[in-house]
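S1.2 Input.
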Amino acid sequence: MKRVRKVGRFLVLLCLSAFGVGLAALWVTYWLAARDYDRQLERAKSLGLTYSYDSLVPDPPLAEAENAAPLYEAAIVKLEAHGPDDESIRVIRDSLRTGPQNWEALRKAVADWEPYLPTFQRGAALAHCRFEREWAEGVMLPFPEFPPLRQAAEALCGRALLQARDHAVPDAVEDLRLAVAIGRHCGEEPVMIGSLVQLAVQARVLSVANLVVDLGGTPAIQPVQGLLATMGQGPDLAYALRGEVAFQFNVFSSLDELEAEQSDSDAVFMPPMLLVKPLFVSSSLVQRAYEARTLKRWCDAFESQAKIADPIALSAALDLAGVELERSHHPADLLAKILFPVFTHAGEAFVRLEANKRLLAASLDLRMMHAFEASYPDTPPVLPKDPFDGQPLRYRREGDGSLLYSVGGDREDDGGREKAGLANGQTGTDLALHVPALRGRDTRATSEPGVLLRSTPG
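S1.3 Output.
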């Protein structure tokens, strides 16, 4: 019995010693990470990274006469009270995605939107848009305006299809221009979701613009070329990440508020929080270590590529940061593993939009050549560069029509093969745009109406 007590005391002392050593090691680990805080803060400042919610507020604020937000908010209130039902939204979206299968159904769905579109149009006519937001809500901050704004832009695209079919090409192009403006306004919010909405809207506009030329024929080419010229470079990935950096950097304050608000019934959420903020370790030390490593991750990503405006380089750097984070065993990275957004191929979506713009622009030049020569050339004309590999876009004749394509995100030339055309065992696709032959030099429609831009996002 005496031996048992000795063994028991020994085990207790061993456990206490192991606990003490482990706790000391944990303290040292957090302390070493927190010690780098000031240096990473200076790096972030030198790179212009946003880590304060105050930096997300426009300074100076937009003048009300220049801000589309109040008009959009008024339109959304009316829309939510008496707006179109989900079926109208579905009909418009399906018509834009695959081409109108039922023109009368599309006409009826767009008519449901007509009472609300004028207010959205007045908002789209203004230069800028910034909604008043409580940025301090951090990752819990909602963005309720984005879904109805995207739906309004799609309704304008649907109306553009109807106008093109009715030979009102200038009106169709104007509606597409307004849709582009709504998407651009969404992209003025310094968060990734705003830029993703802008990407989706612009991708939809490109697809519809291609169909407008199909329906409108040669007279529609120059108006659509003018539309492309007004679209600009599209979203800025670095700008879109400003809010994401601030959200992640300040997330500990949100956790403190969540803990304060928890009731007994919420106790089930405490164990994960104990992993993030372990017992017996100073909360301020844990927070400082987390923030130091978070800033380092973002600084490394932005610093590792020469031009912050290059979405592919920035996306690749963020992908690398994500991989390194997943492999990390540092205790201060536990929360980051939960919150670090999945930016895999984020830059690819931005470049994909630019590739589709260049495909459409090249197709318009080809259509104009066809209008004068009555056929497409056998040899490739001078084509814009493919933004994915820096080589000219690929081109070949297809019967009486032609095919333009980009190698896409895999940077492999798959001969213009699209996802829908994959056979069993095949991999690799390109971004392809089929350009149909015109019936005549000044015809208003093609022999195959309904051809849409392939492989566009959204």
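S1.4 Remarks. The longest helix spans residues 2-34.
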